[in-house]
Design brief:
It contains 13 helices and eleven strands. It has 381 residues and is of the alpha/beta class. The chain has an eleven-stranded mixed beta sheet with strand order 3-2-4-11-10-9-8-7-1-5-6, sandwiched between helices. α1 packs antiparallel against α2, α3 packs parallel to α6 and α4 packs across α10. It is globular and about 65 Å long.
Length: 381
């Protein structure tokens, strides 16, 4: 866990002073624990964490750090960690680097007192994704493909959490292209996005079809191991807890996205991605000539063998049960280990991949663009 915490601390340096300090402090605790010099006040915390994760394999390096941070934030939001709350903007507090020592003392006390109450949170199967800014990363390739024939669409999100990504076409956007060209759509939450790259102008043009696409979506289906209900306060608080505690704008966007989602009909399928695709493939979707599957920073939690099964299952659905449909599978995901990424995409944090059926029973892959996991800029190839 030491290396994971250290990496997460580095990741937060430019974006979250509070969480950079949180992970630096946890890294120090973990280093001492690995050296056999665990602070006596933290022995029970490490025993609880180890019990929660015994026998579990983590695929993404950021899973354990974000589960710990989420569990602590949940305690803050529920009023069970008053010493930490004074440092969390989400609880009315504030933090500066000069407060690092007092923050570390509050953190140690909280871990010592609340570790058992945190156990249910850190035992969760996966991170509950709640980054509402990822919508255009799948909407742009879908719009480009859809605009030609403008068919009715069934939309399926893999790893959907609470399904907030499924209504991304209803959010507000201020999109700018280098050179001054702009496009906007009213909605809530609202995002400022810059488009760059050789395909940016064409992508900007496709945005004119957004309202038509929204009207063409006949169903929105979300798949996840444990889907969350935004109208259930307990489950809503899980989503809030995964927001970094000093990022109030993102927390406000989450609340706005929940309100927008509740104005739309979203259906859910609980289960593993592979099993969900198999079940959905058995449904005819007779009223929609087009089916679009998408996932954003979700398959990074699958090992290569599991991801290969997902790809095979989607390919089988595209060629068999949905052979009469125009099918797309769109991903915003980090490059996978061993993936033959084109030279022009080697530095991307996350790649936008578009999969379609080929003529040999498999799938073709096109690298449409790239973005960060929290995009304010999208590169279009």
């Amino acid at each position: 866990m030491f290396d994971d915490l250290n990496l997460q601390s580095d990741y937060c340096q430019k974006t979250s002073p509070l969480y950079a300090t949180l992970f630096e402090t946890l890294t120090g605790y973990c280093k001492a624990h690995n050296a056999g010099t665990t602070d006596p006040d933290l022995i029970a915390f490490f025993e609880t964490a180890n019990a929660c994760w015994q026998g579990r394999t983590f695929i993404a390096w950021f899973e354990r750090p974000l589960l710990l941070a989420g569990a602590l934030h949940q305690q803050v939001l529920q009023g069970h960690a008053p010493l930490l709350a004074s440092f969390y903007a989400s609880a009315g507090g504030s933090f500066t680097r000069q407060q690092s020592a007092s923050f570390a003392r509050a953190l140690k006390t909280t871990l010592g007192q609340r570790h058992q109450a945190m156990a249910a949170f850190i035992s969760q199967d996966t991170i509950q994704t709640n980054e509402t800014s990822r919508g255009l990363t799948w909407l742009l390739p879908l719009l480009e493909h859809w605009a030609g024939k403008r068919p009715a669409v069934s939309l399926i999100e893999l790893g959907c959490s609470a399904g907030l990504g499924l209504v991304a076409d209803c959010y507000g956007y201020q999109v700018a292209l280098q050179g001054g060209l702009q496009w906007s759509q009213g909605g809530s939450p609202d995002f400022d996005i810059n488009l760059k790259g050789g395909g940016a102008a064409a992508a900007m043009t496709s945005l004119a079809h957004m309202q038509g696409l929204s009207s063409a979506i006949r169903r929105r289906i979300g798949c996840d191991l444990r889907t969350l209900d935004c109208q259930n306060n307990t489950q809503k608080h899980i989503l809030e807890a995964f927001i970094w505690g000093d990022n109030l704008p993102r927390l406000n966007r989450l609340h706005a996205a929940m309100a927008t989602q509740q104005k739309n009909t979203v259906d859910f399928e609980d289960g593993d991605m592979v099993d969900c695709v198999r079940r959905l493939a058995a449904r005819p979707f007779a009223d929609t000539p087009m089916i679009c599957l998408f996932n954003t920073v979700a398959t990074c939690y699958l090992d290569n063998a599991h991801y290969a099964r997902l790809r095979e299952t989607i390919s089988a659905a595209f060629h068999d049960q949905w052979a009469d449909k125009d099918c797309l599978w769109i991903e915003l995901e980090m490059p996978r280990e061993g993936e033959a990424v084109p030279d022009y995409a080697t530095d991307a944090e996350c790649l936008i991949r578009v999969h379609t059926r080929d003529q040999h029973g498999g799938l073709t892959i096109r690298y449409f663009g790239a973005a960060s996991a929290h995009p304010t800029e999208i590169m279009i190839y």
